[in-house]
Amino acid sequence: MAAKEDLAMQLYPFTDPAAGAPRQIVAGEGAWVTDADGNRFLDAVAGLWCASLGFSDERLARAAYDQIRTLGYYHSFKNRSAKPADDLAAKLVEMTPGSIARVFLACGGSEAVDTAVKLARSFRIATEEPGRMKVIARTGAYHGSLGMSASLTGMGYVHDGFALPGGVVRVGRPHPYRDKHPNESDRQLADRLARELDETIRAEGAETICAMIGEPVMGAGGVIIPPEGYWPAMREVLRAHGIHFIADEVICGFGRLGTWFGSDHYDLAPDLMTMAKQLSAAMSPVSAVGLSAEVADALDVQSARLGTFGHGVTYGGHPAACAVALEAIRIHEEMDAPKVARQKGEALGALLERFRGMPGVGDVRRLGFIAAVEIAPDAGFGGAEVGAEAEARGVFFRIIGDTLAMCPPYVATDEDLRRMTDVLEASIKACRARAAA
């Protein structure tokens, strides 16, 4: 185990400093990781929803090594570029929804979201609508933790203690288990949320609103799968008011829902689109923002007038990161990642059937290869207790309030999935027994 004084030098994200020294992970293979004491854990969430090819992959390591030996770094500023960056941008335009015509490369999901909003607002300036600066985001959504991305995130722990940018308009989330009214159907919930969106836009003034951002399926908000009809109704409202849609595909992208992108599954045709995480199978820090031709063309005209496109990051388009991302995409294509997600998702779904109606469990939900089990409000115990019990038994789940989230690597085996669900069942039962004692 690393010395506590050594571990005290880092400011750890989303961690209570009073919790003491963190568990230090030193190795990984497949869906498993090993800590400094030699304990092995099955990671049911692929790290942070991102290690789609597991925690070590020889092809990705080789791609990074080969590129660093050839050209370890170059930038994309001042009319220069590196071939891996250009190749990655071309590949992303090829594989993303047809509405996407251009790509901007960055380093992480939060950075991509901040960039997407900056570009969406820049479009309004370019088209002489400078009053349209507000962005709509949903309650419980997670879009990052930087500046604007943190403001868009609808979770108090990202806001508390910080002074964040404004300009966010909040609307409700499509959470059938938690947020339906009595006797309300899923379709009625979808229609109600679309009406709420329309009423909110009218109250704020459409002439003040630039865009709405949304994950096709809300990941860190609790694996919230929208009811049928939700996205078509929401997109209809946005189009009626001339408001752009930013699809946050940081978690849903690259096969997770059983299609290459969540926008494909829901036919969203986004105006802008953020990508990260599985873009490189988490093995290099890289992200991207996709832009429609309408947005890109307007920015081109404005940039020519101003003499430059005044946005960029030092490591955006980093050749080694882009080389790894290109290799990750090749592997995803060779394995047919959407098909893998559908097949393994069905296997996981079958294993989760035992939790429906289980005492203490309120809801079970899944789409593709992402799923969640939510503890009932009256269970007598919560998600944190179940998560701690599971960790003691060798499995990491993502704990989101009372929700135990699962987003396994595509390389997880059938035995891994059985182990994951067996441990979850045993952990719930252990917590239930303690609550009853």
Overview of the molecule:
α4 packs parallel to α13 (319-335) and α13 (319-335) crosses α14 (337-352). This protein has 16 helices and 15 strands. A seven-stranded mixed sheet has the order 4-10-9-8-7-5-6, sandwiched between helices. A four-stranded mixed sheet has the order 1-2-3-13. The protein is of the alpha/beta class and 437 residues long. The relative contact order is 0.15. It has helices spanning 4-7, 46-49, 58-71, 83-95, 109-126, 148-152, 156-159, 176-179, 186-204, 230-240, 262-266, 293-306, 319-335, 337-352, 383-392, 414-436; strands at 25-29, 32-35, 40-43, 100-106, 134-138, 168-171, 209-214, 244-248, 272-275, 287-292, 361-367, 370-375, 395-396, 398-400, 403-406.
What's the structural blueprint in terms of helices and strands?
Layout: H1 4-7, E1 25-29, E2 32-35, E3 40-43, H2 46-49, H3 58-71, H4 83-95, E4 100-106, H5 109-126, E5 134-138, H6 148-152, H7 156-159, E6 168-171, H8 176-179, H9 186-204, E7 209-214, H10 230-240, E8 244-248, H11 262-266, E9 272-275, E10 287-292, H12 293-306, H13 319-335, H14 337-352, E11 361-367, E12 370-375, H15 383-392, E13 395-396, E14 398-400, E15 403-406, H16 414-436
Parallel strand pairs: 3-13, 5-6, 5-7, 7-8, 8-9
Antiparallel strand pairs: 1-2, 2-3, 4-10, 9-10, 11-12, 12-15, 14-15
Helix pairs in contact: 3-13, 4-13, 5-12, 9-10, 13-14, 14-16, 15-16
Short description:
The chain is of the alpha/beta class and 437 residues long.
